[in-house]
């Protein structure tokens, strides 16, 4: 399946998903008290690298929140699978589940089929990371087709600080027309 990639500077699509704990949430909208949004798409319960990355996200969360950045992690997993994986993560951020194939395509994510021997029930999204500013515009877009290629979250936090500080008035990178 092919999908169009989201362009830097474009507005992130409105996608509403269930969140562990019984609520629903539009993943592009920061919670009250935050201006920016970090959306991390992870592969799902079958991926040990995702579990490690989400644990690293927990460690980066105080710095991100201090900068006014809300965080949500998203996968195509069912509620039961997301709950089981988060028992190993103990997230201090919202975790949304049930991302559909059309939603994955709207986000420009790579999509993989279940493979023999993998604990996967359905097609799933490969990793993606999106940082949205207060207008919903994409400041940072990072997608991968493999689980071992992901941005360093400490550097993402530093980059957000730079974009919100000295580079606030600069054009969004990658928007040359």
TrEMBL record:
<dbReference type="InterPro" id="IPR036249">
    <property type="entry name" value="Thioredoxin-like_sf"/>
</dbReference>
<dbReference type="InterPro" id="IPR000866">
    <property type="entry name" value="AhpC/TSA"/>
</dbReference>
<dbReference type="GO" id="GO:0016491">
    <property type="term" value="F:oxidoreductase activity"/>
</dbReference>
<protein>
    <submittedName>
        <fullName>Peroxiredoxin</fullName>
    </submittedName>
</protein>
<feature type="domain" description="Thioredoxin">
    <location>
        <begin position="6"/>
        <end position="165"/>
    </location>
</feature>
<dbReference type="InterPro" id="IPR013766">
    <property type="entry name" value="Thioredoxin_domain"/>
</dbReference>
<dbReference type="Pfam" id="PF00578">
    <property type="entry name" value="AhpC-TSA"/>
</dbReference>
<dbReference type="GO" id="GO:0016209">
    <property type="term" value="F:antioxidant activity"/>
</dbReference>
């Amino acid at each position: 399946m092919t999908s169009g990639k989201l362009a830097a500077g474009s507005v992130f699509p409105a996608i509403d998903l269930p969140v562990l704990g019984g609520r629903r949430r539009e993943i592009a909208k920061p919670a009250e008290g935050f201006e920016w949004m970090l959306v991390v798409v992870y592969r799902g319960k079958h991926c040990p690298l995702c579990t490690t990355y989400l644990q690293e996200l927990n460690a980066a969360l105080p710095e991100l929140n201090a900068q006014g950045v809300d965080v949500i992690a998203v996968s195509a997993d069912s509620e039961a699978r997301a709950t089981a994986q988060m028992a190993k993560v103990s997230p201090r951020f919202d975790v949304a589940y049930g991302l559909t194939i059309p939603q994955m395509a709207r986000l420009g994510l790579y999509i993989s089929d279940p493979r023999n021997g993998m604990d996967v029930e359905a097609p799933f999204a490969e990793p993606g990371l999106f940082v949205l500013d207060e207008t919903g515009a994409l400041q940072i877009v990072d997608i991968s087709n493999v689980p071992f290629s992901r941005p360093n979250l400490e550097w993402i936090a530093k980059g957000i600080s730079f974009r919100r500080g000295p580079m606030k008035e600069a054009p969004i990178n990658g928007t040359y027309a």
